[in-house]
Amino acid sequence: MKYHVDEISVQDNKQKSNAGRTAMANSSRHSGTVAHVDYIKNLAEFNSLIASTSSKPMIVDFTATWCGPCKQIGPIFVAMSGEAENAGWTFHKVDVDEANDVAQVAKINCMPTFKVYKNGAEVAKLEGANE
């Protein structure tokens, strides 16, 4: 199973088991690249990160602790951040309940929502989670 970001789209070679997801996260850590996702805590931080994007894209997972699909896709998102193929990307999460102002500005209507920002602007969006 391998997850990577490829030209603004997410490619998913499907595998259904949680054990496979755990193994993927662990293999990312052992391949020399550490899976890493930072939470964006407030609107000022969010705006600063978007403004600082250039040709190096940033992908944001808008999530909630109570959201079942978010819990399902969350470990996959983290594993993707550790893949060598995604080394040029930065990965962040926003808890929509903790940073409601960020969710409002980003016009989040459902969770999970994934948005890609590049050169200071949103360039792609994916709503929902489906393996």
Describe the structure.
There is one protein chain. The chain has 131 residues and is α/β, with parallel strands linked by helices. It has one domain (36-127): Glutaredoxin (3-Layer(aba) Sandwich). The protein is 32% helix and 27% strand. The chain contains four helices and seven strands. A five-stranded mixed sheet has the order 3-5-4-6-7, sandwiched between helices. A two-stranded antiparallel sheet has the order 1-2. A hairpin with a 2-residue loop joins strand 6 (113-118) and strand 7 (121-127). Helix 1 packs parallel to helix 3 (68-81). The chain is globular, with a radius of gyration of 14 Å. The two termini are 12 Å apart.
Q: What's a quick, concise take on this entry?
A:
The protein is 32% helix and 27% strand. The protein is α/β, with parallel strands linked by helices and 131 residues long. The protein starts with a strand and ends with a strand.
Jot down its keywords.
131 residues; alpha/beta; Glutaredoxin; 4 helices
Topology:
Elements: E1 3-6, E2 9-12, H1 18-30, E3 38-39, H2 43-51, E4 58-63, H3 68-81, E5 90-95, H4 100-105, E6 113-118, E7 121-127
Helix pairs in contact: 1-3
Weakly predicted, low-confidence segments: 6-32
Structural class: alpha/beta
CATH architecture: 3-Layer(aba) Sandwich
- Specify the CATH class: Alpha Beta
The CATH superfamily turns out to be Glutaredoxin
How many helical elements?
Answer: 4
The CATH topology comes to: Glutaredoxin
CA distance, first residue to last residue: 12 Å
Overall morphology: globular
The count of DSSP E runs of length 2 or more, i.e. the number of strands, is 7
